[in-house]
Amino acid sequence: MTDVECNNETVGASTRGNRGVLVTVADVIDESPDARSLVLTIPEDQHDRFSYRPGQFLTLRVPSDLTGSVARCYSLASSPHTDPAPKVTVKRTVDGYGSNWLCDNVKVGDTIEVLPPSGVFTPASLDADFLLWAAGSGITPVMSILKSVLSSGNGRVVLCYANRDERSVIFAGELRELAARYAGRLTVLHWLESIQGLPTRAQLSGFTQTVFAGSTGFESFVCGPAPFMAVIKETLTEAGVPRERIHLEVFQSLSGDPFAADTTAAATDCDESDTAALQVDLDGTSHRLRWPRQATLVDVLVRSGVDVPYSCKEGQCGSCAATVVRGDVDMAACDILEPEDIADGIILGCQARPVSDDIHIEF
To answer: Is 243 helix (H, G, I), strand (E, B) or coil?
Structure first.
């Protein structure tokens, strides 16, 4: 979604893990009555680690009197193609400890401990036509994609954005400016529950038929509450959109501490005589390793010194999503991957263990 400096005083410094990075809050922007953006300054020596793709997220450490800290994932609403600094946007949720603490306490000059960008809710190419769906704070990763496509791609963008009422619309002014600047390529459609009610499959079916006009070539990216995403997915599927063109962003609250020093991989007692041959392609480099059958993919990569992306190690955030190119793995059940994703070979590295003897994985 503690080691945060508030009022220029370090909070919980003794609990700092070795994975997080302290970043400075350069600006705090009120986006709506219940949402604020935090613009972050990244230390010079960490710029490479914090390069990101449109649609990714950061994990923030939030102090807690009960547990010392909690970890929360927040999407980057900024674009790496247009914005000089990364920006996360936080919307208050009812009984949401992390969102309320950040909105109430963080100010310019404070420091926050964060993990490098993660997530796979990101386009493979910006040179396509995009149908973007967002509800509430689900606009944050969608906004990053939208701005990136308009500035660095050549396709059309249609955004359907649902909110309770007009006051709830995050980035309202920025969306108006973008719609005027890219009038030939960007269409913004607002859906207000106060006027139109909750979107139904029947209502959205007519909308998608109009947008597609006989073509299902749009890439659809969907982010919002689970019922909203379910309706959109069903509507797109009924309209004949191929599964590979429907991309859903799924978050769950993290229960562990992804900032803690990772001693699991080093401490794992594995039978090194029973291993699989492993090839991992990550960030343009191919790694060839032996994979003990009792170890997870993330654990074996961490133990081997490979800078693998991960956050929670509990199958809750999707940071370690990868694709099986060759071979078979066994994976504990998780809620954030769709059955179709698993059928397509997508796995969570923190849950995967080898089954076959020769495995090729791509991140």
So the answer is: helix
pLDDT of residue 7: 30
Establish how many alpha carbons lie within 13 A of residue 110's alpha carbon, considering only the half-sphere containing its beta carbon: 24
Residues 6+ apart with CB under 8 A from 255: 312, 314, 316
Rounded to whole angstroms, the Cα distance separating 209 from 189 reads 15
- E strand or H helix at 61, and its extent? strand 57-64
Q: Could you count the other beta carbons within 10 Å of the beta carbon of residue 271? A: 10
Buried b (16+ CB within 10 A) or exposed e, 130-165: bbbbbbbbbbbbbbbbbbbbbeebebbbbbbbbbee
Among residues 363, 321, 344, the alpha carbon closest in space to that of 243 is found at 344
| Residue 129 contacts residue 219 (beta carbons within 8 Å) | yes
Q: If you average pLDDT over residues 127-138, what whole number do you get?
A: 95
Q: Between 330 and 333, where is the model more confident?
A: 330
- Looking at the DSSP bridge assignments, the partners of residue 118 are 57
Is-contact 129 217, C-beta < 8 A?
A: yes
Nearest one of 252, 211, 224 to 168, comparing CA atoms? 224
Determine the Cα–Cα distance for residues 211 and 255; give it in Å rounded to an integer: 40
Both tokens assigned to 29: 């922007």
The pair of structure tokens assigned to 148 is 């990136």
- Other beta carbons within 10 angstroms of residue 86's beta carbon come to 25
% of the chain beyond a pLDDT of 70: 88
- Name the packing angle between helices 226-238 and 201-212 (round to 10°): 50
The closest alpha carbon to 74, from 132, 115, 27, 23, belongs to: 115
31-35, 136-140, 304-308: the lowest-pLDDT one: 304-308
Q: Which phi-psi region, left, alpha or beta, contains residue 284 (left: φ > 0; alpha: ψ -120 to 50)?
A: left
DSSP secondary structure letters along 311-358? S-SSSSS-TTEEEEEES-EEE---SSS-HHHHHTTEEETTTEEE-SSE
Q: Per-residue pLDDT for 206 more than 90?
A: no
Q: What is the pTM of this model?
A: 0.80
Q: Return d(Cα 297, Cα 287) in angstroms, integer.
A: 12
